[in-house]
Design goal:
single chain; 200 residues; 7 helices; 48% helix
């Protein structure tokens, strides 16, 4: 099974058939997809300027989409290195019980679904790397009452999400499943009061 870097090389390789280059970009999302596979694909296509169903996109646009994905992956991998370093220090200091951020992080190891968007057409418009920087900054400070990505305050508790956890606060404005550890108890309670059932 090809890894992210070898797939990225295929996307860039002008000797490869265009269909293979597009396919390789899609396969990269099996290794790293912050919004989930479908929503991340929709995001990359819209930002790079080709359609999600376009079978012959401009190779320059394919590479632009790859570059955005690679930058975001670099941001996330740096965070994971620092996360692992922090946990080692905590264990060395006798803190064996992980906190709520650690519980959330275990579900997102590798970067899949860190800013899950259940509706693949509703996701943040900003570059992926910027979205991840905002999310990481929120994980490293005290909890707040708004979405860490877009600062939206319209959070709704949704059930039946195609993700783990399958319930949680979703930002109405940018569509992400907001990590619970970044929200205050009051914000979580408010989101629960405005809950919606996601249809199957």
């Amino acid at each position: 099974m090809a890894g992210f870097r070898s797939l990225a090389r295929q996307v860039r390789d002008p000797r490869c058939d265009l269909a293979l280059r597009r396919y390789s970009l899609r396969k990269c999302l099996e290794r790293f997809a912050p919004y989930g596979h479908r929503a991340t694909w929709d995001h990359l296509c819209s930002r790079a300027g080709f359609g999600p169903e376009d079978r012959s996109p401009d190779p320059v646009r394919l590479v632009a989409a790859l570059e955005e994905l690679e930058e975001a992956r670099s941001v996330w991998l740096d965070y994971e290195v620092e996360f692992a370093r922090r946990r080692r220090r905590e264990k060395h200091d006798g803190l064996r019980r992980p906190g709520s951020v650690d519980d959330w992080h275990r579900l997102t190891w590798g970067g899949f679904g860190v800013a899950w968007c259940d509706d693949p057409r509703v996701h943040p418009a900003e570059p992926l790397a910027e979205v991840l920087r905002r999310l990481i900054a929120a994980l490293e400070r005290e909890p707040g009452a708004a979405c860490p990505v877009c600062a939206g305050e319209r959070l709704v508790w949704k059930y039946g999400l195609d993700h783990e956890p399958s319930t949680g606060p979703v930002c109405v404005d940018c569509g992400i499943l907001v990590p619970r550890p970044v929200l205050t108890p009051g914000a979580l309670a408010s989101a629960r009061r405005g809950r919606l059932l996601v249809s199957a």
